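Methods — Computational structure assignment.
A single polypeptide chain was analysed. Its primary sequence is given first, followed by the predicted tertiary structure written as structure tokens.
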Amino acid sequence: MNDANIQKYQQDLVEYLKKANCLKTPLVEEAFMKVPRHLFLPDEPLDKVYSDVAIVRKRGEEGRWTSSSSMPAIMAIMLEQLDLKPGQRVLEIGTGTGFNAALIASIVGPNGKVVTVDIQPDLIEHARKCLDVAGYDWVQTVVGDGGYGYPDGAPYDRIILTVSSDLITPSWREQLAPGGILVLPFAAMGMGSQLSVAFEKQGEELVSVNSKPCGFMPLQGAFAVTLPVQTQLGPDPRLFLLSEPGKELPVVADTIFTWLSEESQDWATGITVTRYELEWSLANWIVLHESQAKQQRGLAATLVAKGDLADQNLIPSLAGTGGEWKAMYSAVLIDQDGMAAMMRPPGQVAPLMDIMHPDDNTPFELYVRNFGAGTKAGQCLLEYIQNWDQAGKPTSLNWKIRAIPAETEYHSTDGEFLVNKPWTKLIISYQ
């Protein structure tokens, strides 16, 4: 394959990203044209390498991805959030193939400094070879736990994570220079969706500048993301409930399984939603408000029917994914005497979407299905949905997040939500 053909592949990808409004700045566009992605994915076909897909590089237990080359669209978005300038010092956490480090290096140039850290030695070995071949031998590759950053190269003008985290470690704050930017795939509310948040360091605070939707594999090591608790429902392990660690189910799993087979009530909300609004707006609204309730009104969780069970109408149909992640999902609220689930209109089945390109955004009326003898959970879920609609369907993409040291005394005001994290207090408000 000659250089002209490679450049055509690169140009086609760049044009796609520009049309998708993911690529806007000349520096990032130039980087995508300068760094050949196929050098970092030598075993993959060129048409796949230069398309907007994430490419798995390594799997762990049960076939779970532990490393991938991210979709070029989200790479472009996050690099623009990072607002790189020539000569800057940059720390990347989550090396993967090394392609993203090469994009960063092509922007900051050899007068800058790029350090990329990964906890998996074989990934660093691969990335080192690829970076050398691509002409970025001056990029420093380090095997280590990214939760600790890399103090030997600090301070950094920019820090970027290509793995998700539900907290901000002390090292990232300490190693970021004043006025610097941290870009982090942030699972701020644990069970809520991830946001790629660009934080600017202002004194002792990290203040969000903007947020974009994203989805990344979790950080590993000493600061690993706390994964949801998976509770099997019934005899088939593919039917289960995902709930937040540290919070007990109000009832035993057998009770929930029984509820699913018993008579239920369906309530129309009269509110039309899209899948996008569910994921990036309503879900985080419910989790955030439930976290601030003086008395917990129910346990927010996710009901899952995995694999072929997704086709068997075992759970209320709200959203589905296809391919190797085939599953049907519903968001639920559970109380001692009942459970409420969000769903599409009765008889309507959610399409099984490609997780890489969930492009079905067809509006539908949201329903609530109430299980069990009690209606408290159902009424509460209905109230959350109605309050969200009356507030104008505010999205978590418009959150303003201030991250302050945990020891700082702070009392939230009206419209603010105070979320306590290890080492950090988050002050979240809707802009």
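Note: The chain is about 25% helix and 30% strand.
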